[in-house]
């Protein structure tokens, strides 16, 4: 398409081809039709040239115009030339327009068609927009309806679940009826249906408080099933309780059976308290009689296997030994004062009753012991009886707490209603026995048995027997203190000369004190009165004074002190006051005894050494210058007899002391002291006063003497 050229307003040239401005040449002829250019027509008179001067001024400032003016070009001629070119270009442009007129018209038609299409599309989109707006509102409406329907569904489901649960709880199934009516109570399905029945009974009670009408429809059936279940359960439990009464019955078996069906009693307690109370009272009455009968029989049979010889009121530490006395009136001999002092006042194997293996060992079977002709001390029977009580009492308390569902004071009251009569019998029998008991070791051990059993029940967390243990201790302690006081008084008032044959071995009185001390230390107790120790110590000194020789007195004291120290060393520490005190006593008496046994064979030499050493300290050794004969006798006498004397001394010491270890220590001390004395004898004879004596050559070499003495050292 040709370009459209705007013609200058000042130009008056005509269009190419002689046509006037605004004409269009038709393609088929030379005639140019006029064209309406509208605002583009520069030839109209309506065009106002208000700004012509401004344009002229601007054109003059144009670089091209300035260059033309500078070169002297005629502007008029140049203007005409330009106008001619413009006209040619205009004519060419017009021809191009005319040539493309059909295309332009077609383009116009196409644009018009596009406008109509776009208009229709706009209408369609507007319709779509309005449709989408309506759809959005419909979706919101549907969403609201969905939320509402979902809420109604949830409400209906909640109501349905509650109604379903209500119906399930109210309906009594046929299976439950058949099982409750026909199945034995020991069947597992009966127990399961009983649980379900209990739930329905509780649910019916709950609904009755809410005045639910549906409850009345099932109440009659539930009540009938409850009555039937209560009847069957009562018969079952009563049968088990009556089975306890059969002779030789192990009542622990039916107890375990009842524990297996403990829910039966729970069901009765919740639904029929009168029947539950009846069964509990029946059980309490039955078991109370069983325990009383069992322990009464067992205690009586135990006494038949007790030692026949027991301590009586005359069997005290300080009681004098007297021969049997013939009574003129009756013709019978009176009983000796003591059957066996060592048995009565010595612990021996009796302390084994407190060992863990014996304390919680099997109880004694009396008829077995009778067949074997076995006899036991009282504390062993006491341990067996009370261990049976502890074992049965703990088991019974746990059964009551579990089956009858009681705890605290209620459990204790129920336990006492069963075991109270039996415990009262025990206390009565013990009080009777203690009133005539003078066996201090038996009472002493019984106290410790109770203390240990008390600790066991505390460890098992069984408080049922706590009051009984305290009651037993209240009986045992005063009796033990009374027996101790009687022994103290007997020791204080006794005459050692009337206690029979004197013996250098440990005295039975001291053995008893050792027994008490051993038990006291073994179980960390502090219960012996120091007054007893003081009186026994005084008694031992008085007994020692009865021996005619100082040697026998020292042997007696050393044996007793050594026995006590051995007991103390088993449990006490080496730096304790008791151990230190007895060590000092034993050391002092031992040193004195060594001097005593050396004085007989070597007394002359020892006296000479002591005398010489005293004179040497004062510088007066010359006073013994004339004792050549005495010195000669001492040197030759020692050389000829020392071996026999040492051998005799060793044998005598080992025969005198019950503790071989202590005897060995004394022999070693005596031989060491002998060597020291002989060394002193050498030292004295080496002084200038005695160097001229020819007998010095007969002295035994000190090293040789030590070697020979070691041969006499006993090996124990």
TrEMBL record:
A Gene Ontology biological process term: endocytic recycling
Pfam family, one: Vps52_CC
Superkingdom of origin organism: Eukaryota
Localization in the cell: Golgi apparatus, trans-Golgi network
Residue span, Vps52 coiled-coil domain: 96-268
GO MF terms, alphabetically ordered: syntaxin binding
Keywords: Golgi apparatus, Protein transport, Transport
Protein name in UniProt: Vacuolar protein sorting-associated protein 52 homolog
Naturally occurring in which organism (per UniProt): Denticeps clupeoides (denticle herring)
Lineage per the UniProt record: Eukaryota, Metazoa, Chordata, Craniata, Vertebrata
Gene expressing this chain: VPS52
